[in-house]
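ok here's Bacterioferritin:
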Amino acid sequence: MQGSSKVIEALNGLLAAELTSVDQYFVHSEMYRNWGFEKLYERIHHERDDELGHATRLIERILFLDGTPNVAARTALRIGGDVETMLKNDLQTEYDVAAALKAAIALCETERDYVTREMLTTLLDDTEVDHAHWLEQQLTLIKHVGLPNYLQSQMS
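and the structure:
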């Protein structure tokens, strides 16, 4: 099915952001494991898998619309050097992805591509309700209990 070139371009932009998230979560999860923060490792490794699932859905949709997925493009990678910075960087990445998803959803409405809009709405829900919310919770915990207590709670 021939899709809108504007929608395909937006989907490729989202794909770049999702693949960047996969890379960032991969590095961060391995850093957490190396430092002994097993609970953070498990959660961020899980988030990496979720982002890979998002990328897969985007690739499938781009192909369905007769587009070519650009798997080489990436957005800015934000690797942190400590736990709090890593959580903040991951949250900013999620905020950026959410903003791009909202713009793409609006474009799909304009282009009358309601199936792609629905798929992106599902990804937005996952991004805002699951990923970003969890990261916000972690940063709030650090604020309330202090970084040392938070880090102790993340060890296995």
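+1. Residues 114-145 form the longest helix (32 residues).
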